[in-house]
Structures are given as structure tokens and as C-alpha cells.
Amino acid sequence: MALKRVSIFGATGSIGQNTLDLIGRDPERFQVDTLTGGHQVDHLAEDAKKYGARMVVTAYDDHYQALKSALSDTDIQVGAGASAMKEAASRPVDMVMSAIVGAAGLEPGLTAMNAGADLLLANKESMVAAGALTRTTAQKNNVALLPVDSEHSGVFQALQGERRDTIERVILTASGGAFRDYTLEEMQSVTPEQACDHPTWAMGQRITVDSASMFNKALEVIEAKELFDLAPEQIEVLVHRQSLVHALVEFQDAGIIAHVGPHDMRHAIGYALYGGNRANLPLERLDFTKIARLDFAAPDLKKYPSVDLAYQVMRAGGLMGAAFNAAKEKALDAFLARQIGFLQMSEVVKSVIDTLSVTDHGFEDALNLEHILGMDALGRDMAERVCATQK
Ligand code: NDP
Ligand code: MG
Fold first, then answer.
1. Which ligand is nearest to the CA of 265?
2. Is 14 in the pocket of ligand 1 (CB under 6 A)?
3. Is the distance from the beta carbon of residue 147 to the nearest atom of ligand 1 less than 6 Å?
């Protein structure tokens, strides 16, 4: 088996660390090429040494000196800022784990595919903001685009050997997040600290809060449409407290294939890292006699209006996904900064989407990166202005 050169964008985050854990267990198969991070410079330097990286990059120019001196006793190449990120993404490797959080993950992923790397996609924002461009970039370069989000990995696995035109329905499950047992009234006054406490999954801060608001599921519905070329009405969401069934695919013969597994991201990461093959992974095995029950319920759309917004965005099509994701990122920033309340996040995003639905914003082409970035900037700007008016 030839050694696979792997780069990890967002190596210091939750997905990045889980990826390194698996890679570190199979040195005969994987060679780390480049690790990128943001603010956690010491952590990045430590991992670069531990995993034998050739290059490390922090996304922020300001951190260059700190990273450089942390690696002064090595010959690891060090970079910082946008141009170094681009250089890192252009290196000839076999695969790249796209695990930066937010729309910041889009361009490195596109660059990596254009340089010939397979893309292991945790960064769902790429599919929401630029689904068509991401997909066509993979096709054009004849590289694989492998889902890492657990639900999408589950769908991908359920679809192996199946004909796409026999799919009737895809169901994505959601844990319900930190406030699943709260009333709508109780949700009005929740704090960022409370929203960061996920009942089943251990993840980065932003996706954890997005799980509590179910904006995460809204993003995932759009991600599923874009990855699997589904119609919006083919995608459904079910709240499933145990987070063991990750996705269900129903076919035209009424058969359903469900993907079931432990809530450990290393399963989905491993499936992608091994190119859609089943490696022997060091994960907990489920004991159904202990689990005893699996619960499913429709989401309460009054508590989680974000889910409805995903369908509005998909119906609008074009570049609305880019605006939606950008507005969501801004609303999340404002909630984390205690500028707006938890439930106001979806009000802010809805206001941006509603306004854009009836105005001519001048951006047309969903395959044009400039237009996508223009829409992203507009969405952020509008959301910021709406946040400023919220009380
Ligand atoms: P984390 O917040 O844990 O990690 C994010 C990573 O991105 C860190 O390495 C961080 O660096 C880096 N980063 C943050 N901002 C920037 C930026 N502007 N430019 C470059 N790098 C940046 O996130 P997760 O690992 O939880 O999530 C990563 C992606 O995977 C997200 O898109 C998320 O939606 C998706 N995902 C995550 C899952 C999970 O279980 N965690 C499950 C499914 C999908 P630093 O920390 O050094 O500042
Ligand atoms: Mg998910």
C-alpha cells in the first residue's frame, strides 16, 4: 500500500484532532504533509513535531513569529496568513481534510482540489455557500469529494451499490442540542455557556451552538441536497436523542437503509480517510441490549425555525446559500458576544434572507467564486446591521 500524503486544514480543532488520532495509528499508510491552524499556535507546533509534518501554517499573520520560534529547532516549513494558506493548499498531496470552521474553509478546499487532492469534507459551509462550485471543482479535477459530516457519511454509506434514481427520501437525524428539553419560553434567556453544552457529541464551540439552535441541521439539509443532488422535498429531519442512527435512506421499494454507529466522529473520518473502505477503527462497539430504545420525533419548528429557513434557501437557489451561511455566522458571533439573544439568531438570518429574496443583489453566477464571496460579504454586512438594531 503506497503511503498517502495527507494535509489537515483546521488541524487544531475537534475534527482535525480526531483525524490526527487516526493517522497517528497507521504510519504505514499515512504521511502528514501540512497542518494548518488559527490561534492555537503552540498546539499546532506540538502536533507538527509529533506527527512529522513538512509544513505548518497559521491563518493569522500576527502569529508567525510565535509559530516560527516554537519550531526553530526543526526544519519544518512555517507560514502565516492568506498567501501561506494558499501555498499550503496548493501542495501536491493525495488528500486534504477540510476541517476549518466557517466559510473560511471554502477557498483552501477548492485550491486543494484544483491541485489534485481528494477532499475529505467536514467543512459543511463549503457545500452551503458554494455547493455547485465545490461539486464541479471535484468533477473537473477528477478528485473525490468525500463527506465527513456524520449524517452525510451515513447517507453516502447507505448509497453504496444503490442507484441514485431509486432514492425516495433521505432523513437526517438531529440530537436536538442543548435545549431539546427546554420550552420555547425557557430558550429565550439562555446563555452562550449553556448553548455550548452538547448532550451527545463533543465538537467545536460554533457547531455546538449551531446544534442547540438547529442551524447545524439547516446547514446539513442544504449540504445533503448539494452532495447527493436531491430535491428539497426529499430531505427530512428527525430529532433522535440517542444520536446513534445518523441518517436513513428510503428507496422506492419502501426499504430503508439506516446508518447506525457510535457518536464518535472518527467513524466518519475513518471512512473518508480510507477512501470509502472499512478500516479496523478503535471505536466503541454498540451494545443494543444496553441501548434498549431509539426515539424519533419531528422537530418543533417553533423552537427551531432555522430548519424551515433551509427550505426557503433551497427554494430560492442561486447564491442564497452563501448569504444564509454568512448571516448565520454573523448572528452566531453576535449571540456569543451577548449582543443578541439565542432566539434572535434565526430572526436575524430570516430578515436577511427575506430581504435578499425580493431585491436584485446583482450577483448571478453560483459557479463564480467572486460572486459567491460577494454574496457572503453582503450577507455578513446585512446581518451585522440587523443585529445592531436588535434589543
Ligand atoms: P473547531 O472550532 O474545533 O476547529 C476549527 C479549526 O479551524 C481550528 O483548527 C481553528 O484554528 C481553525 N480556524 C478557525 N477559524 C479559522 C479561519 N478563519 N481560518 C483558518 N482556520 C481557522 O471546529 P470543528 O472541528 O468542530 O469543526 C470543523 C468543521 O467541521 C466545521 O465546518 C464543522 O461544521 C464541521 N463538522 C464538525 C463536526 C465535529 O464533530 N466537530 C461534525 C461535523 C462537521 P484554532 O483553533 O487554532 O484557532
Ligand atoms: Mg452532522
1. 1
2. yes
3. no
Going from the Cα of 349 to the center of ligand 1, the distance in angstroms, rounded, reads 21
Whether 13 is in the pocket of ligand 1, judged by its Cβ within 6 Å, is yes
Average pLDDT over residues 125-142: 98
Cβ of residue 108 lying under 6 Å from some atom of ligand 1: no
Over the chain, what is the mean pLDDT? 97
250, 190: one domain: yes
CATH number of the domain bearing residue 79? 3.40.50.720
- C-alpha 211 – ligand 2 centre gap (Å): 9
Domain that holds residue 205: 152-262+283-390
Are 135 and 170 part of one and the same domain? no
Decide whether any atom of ligand 1 lies within 6 Å of the 20 Cβ.
no
121 alpha carbon, closest ligand: 1
Any ligand 1 atom below 6 A from CB of 374: no
All 3 cell numbers of residue 331?
Answer: 448572528
Counting the structural domains of the chain, the total is 2
- pLDDT digit string (tens) for 332-341? 999 999 999 9
Q: Are 224 and 149 in contact (CB under 8 A)?
A: no
Alpha helices in 116-265 (DSSP H): 124-141, 150-158, 184-187, 192-195, 205-213, 215-228
